[in-house]
Every structure is written in C-alpha cells, then in structure tokens.
C-alpha cells in the first residue's frame, strides 16, 4: 500500500524472516527533498508501528528525515502468536537484518543512520548497537526498558516460579500485571485509541514473553557501560512503567562521549503520543534539535570507514 499526504510518501511491505514468518514493515519518506538522515523506529512491547507510531514518524518525516519501521514477530501486523516473543535475540536479528538492508542501498550508503526506540524498543535499539557497535550513528531512547519499574515487577518468588513454568507452558497468559495502558498514557483519548487498536496486544503477558523481557532488562542493566554510540535518553519524572533511575544510570555509566539526558517533570511513560499536546511539542523539539545538530556535523562513521579502508590499502601498498 502507498499513500501520499503532506509531502510524505507512506509505503507498507511484508518481508519474510529466516524463520519463515511474515513481518510487516513500513516507511515514511519526505517528498521533494533528499532525506537529511535515516531514522529506524523500534516500538514498545504490545505496540506496533503503522498506527501508534504514525504520529511520531510523520513529525520526523515533515522535518526531512526518512523513517522506517518494523513490527516484531507476535506484534502488530506481523505473523506469530499475538503478544508472544519466544526469544528477544530473534527480534534483534530481524530488526538488524531489515534495517541494515535499507542502509546498504546505494542511495542510502552515505546517509546518517539513527535508531529511535520507545520503552522495550529502547532496549532493542541498544542491543542492536551492541550487535554492530560501529554501524549506528546514534539513538534517541524514549523511556527505555533498561529495567522494569519495581511496582510492576512480580515478587522474586513469583519470578522464580514463572521462569521455570515458561519452559513448559510458554504461551500461557498468567503473569500477574497491572493495566499498562492506564499507567503509560496520560491522555484518556489515547488510552481508548490503544484499546481499540486491534494490532495492540492487551492481554496479560505470556510466560515466555515475560521471561524474555525480564532477561533482557537484567542483561541491559548489568552492561550499560557497553553503550558507546551517541544518544539522547528521555524519561518522564512520573513514569510508572520503566525506571527513570536506570536512565540516569545509563547516562552516567555509558562509555559514549556524546550523551544527553532529559527528564520531564510531571510526564508519564508515553512521551511520544500519550501526553497532552503541549508536552509532546516539548519532547519533539528536543528530539529534532538533537537529530538536526548531529546530522549537520558530518558523517563521522563514513570518515571512520574511509580511514579503515585507507589503512587496509596502505598495508598492501
């Protein structure tokens, strides 16, 4: 499907991953101009790209960025049991493979490439970076899931039992949890839109999915110093879903030389589309300023790649 509105071309396409699943992908391309840079969006748990992230993508495309998205397996319009993630490593591999293929197209090779990850998507972005440390030019991490908030985390005894059960009944929806939609999105209309979106998963977390999210957060929390790319991390001070203290820890411990943190008093988890419009404008002003400033500095990744190539050639001269 292709649509054109407000000088933006929107396309959808299904791709096949190595495990034989059809994955939904989409893109928002600015018309009448060469894209400033490429932005790859990584959505949150139980969310999807084409509807819930549409406003985010359109805002960025209007600013001149080409934006690309993918629904993870078990999410959105992609194949797989809804709300089920058997292995987060597969999600990282799928995103890396699709996004890399876009970057390596002839018309995109010289363009800057940024990740934008929301909630669980923030963890996805950081794990993609860990997989290919030199590949990405930076990331915007919105309330990243480096650690699930203590109020949402089951008791350690419950976690232990559920972890063992996940091997036997992985798809069962028996993890006790609060209503994330009520906790994440401040604006009641947005809560209703998410609830009425058939592509958003609204049941209890499935056992193996919960285990994979828990495993991923533990992995992230213990290796924050391995984050080395430029990043902007954003977190609402009143976030009850992911832990803002770990965003502070990420900013403190990451080995990146270019790192910025923004904390927003009174804002909740859904910074990109769950807040009142005046708050969303504040958040996007910060995001766009950060992206534009770095895109204007020149492509240091390309310079680095060229230097490596020249060094390799000099060995044989």
UniProtKB/TrEMBL annotation:
Pfam families: Hydrolase_4. Residues 33-272 form the Serine aminopeptidase S33 domain. GO terms for molecular function: lipase activity. Signal peptide: none annotated. GO terms for cellular component: membrane. This is Serine aminopeptidase S33 domain-containing protein. It comes from Manihot esculenta (Cassava). The lineage of its organism: Eukaryota, Viridiplantae, Streptophyta, Embryophyta, Tracheophyta.
